[in-house]
Design goal:
The chain is of the alpha/beta class. It has one domain (about 5-285): Rossmann fold (3-Layer(aba) Sandwich), CATH 3.40.50.150. Helix content is about 40%, strand content about 20%. Strands 1, 2, 3, 4, 5, 6, 7 and 8 form an 8-stranded mixed sheet that branches. α6 links the parallel β2 (about 75-80) and β3. α8 (about 160-170) packs across α12 (about 250-265) and α10 (about 225-240) crosses α12. The longest helix is centred in the C-terminal third of the chain and has 15 residues, at about 250-265. The mean pLDDT is about 95.
Length: about 290
Amino acid sequence: MTQATMTQAEYWNGEVGQRWARSQAVLDAVFAPLTEALFAGAALPPGAAILDIGCGAGATALVAARAAGTGGRVLAADLSGPLLEVARGRAVQAGDAPVAWVEADAETQDFGAAAFDHAISRFGVMFFSDSRAAFANIRRSLKPGGRLTFLCWRAMADNPWVTVPRAAVLPLVPDAAPPDVEGPGPFRFADPEGLSRLLRAAGFDEVACAPVARDLLLGQADDGSARTAAGAAAAVVVELGPVSRLLRDREPPVRQAALEAVTEAFLPHARDGAVRLEAGCWLVSAG
């Protein structure tokens, strides 16, 4: 079965989900600035009932539990069994809201009518088969006055952390298909006007899309070596994220050549033993 013929459930419960689960600590660290931006925008109050869509390995759900406190609750949903297995093994701290983990498709899962004060997602909403149906289902789960806050990627051109390694890898995979910006995928909601229309069609009234840009620490070297930092950063993007999709079905020699090419591409961006590149997102709020 190829990536193109997989359902999202098959994709995230297969090798990709397992690889992301193994890399939970790396992903948490790389996306930490964006997680901070999401929760600054959501401003979750104590005592809130929170729905986390596409919770992955649990980082966002645990932050939500801390914000909600003992008077609140968190329902964290994801398609991926491997990622949820990691999430369930992470401890909820004393004083945090309880977290319930559920393997579910947000497009069809009955989360309960008017059950939550707030729904959140960090890059978990771009992969629905039917986005309008999924957002309408999330809307039904919110109480009157409830809100949805999520992060999604802006255009690829606004994300050097993707474009720099992608440019290095493309010559090695000349038959790679162009990015699909219509179907499920990371850059599906790059157009804020189209996204706003979609959310309104799904039942949301007040929609705002604010640009967010943060530098992501992709790799670093304890000894300050630029090449070591570039190699560490290359290993992250070749294994995880949009560039890894170009290499998923490739033979080991191609993957090794890609790792070397991306390392060279990252060398000019290494400063003080670290590689940082900008990520551009939309912080979306809808009520």
